[in-house]
Amino acid sequence: MLNALFQDPTEGVEVLTDAEPVKKTLSIIELISSGGVAGQFIIGLLFILLIVALYIYFERIFAIKAASQIDRNFMNEIKDHVSNGKIDSAQTLCAQQNTPVSRLIGKGISRIGKPLEDINTAIENAGRLEVYNLEKNVSVLATISGAAPMIGFLGTVIGMILSIFEIANSGGQIDIKLLADGLYTAMTTTVAGLVVGIVAYITYNHLVVRTDKVVYQMESNSLEFLDHLNEPI
């Protein structure tokens, strides 16, 4: 009986322990889907801008790479043909290469017999056209790199306005979850805008560097051709 009186009161009773906190995962898809029509529209617009930026980058990088490929013996063969009076052979060689450099040299060869200044002018005019073709749609990347972050900030402002609107209409009882969802959505548009802007900015600058190399190649070969024409026979 004494044992019954002094029995441990916790015996046979399930000891309650603190439940482990549930870890909430951050899903971008859930944030976008819960962001309302405005947030989803802005995210969709930024996604389209990202696709356009990547398309322009890869299309231009392949075009610039093809434009920069030229035979190392091209200028030597051109000079040999011009020195020997084989103008037709020189023009045929330029047509076979089909690069910005070969087109510039071909334009100069077609003006042989005229004053050197006229030949130089013809090459410069053709060079401007080639540079324009190389820089085709590259300015769109510059526009996207500047516009995307601003579009993202616009989504942030809209998200903040909606959150403040919910607080104002909560009647003094603020729903923390609702407020957090609104802030998450607002920040998501900012991150998306910055990501698209950074990608467009990096790809734009890379294309500019690659284009400058081709332009330098065009100028170098054009000067070499003009110097050869200016040499005394």
UniProtKB/TrEMBL annotation:
Primary location: membrane
Domain of life: Bacteria
Record's keyword terms, sorted: Cell membrane, Membrane, Protein transport, Transmembrane, Transmembrane helix, Transport
UniProt entry tagged with the keyword Heme: no
One CC-aspect GO term: plasma membrane
Membrane topology: Multi-pass membrane protein
Subcellular location: Cell membrane; Membrane
GO process terms (BP): protein import
Spans through the membrane: 37-58, 138-162, 182-204
Domain MotA/TolQ/ExbB proton channel, residue spans: 97-219
Record's signal peptide: none
Similarity section: Belongs to the exbB/tolQ family.
Protein name: MotA/TolQ/ExbB proton channel family protein
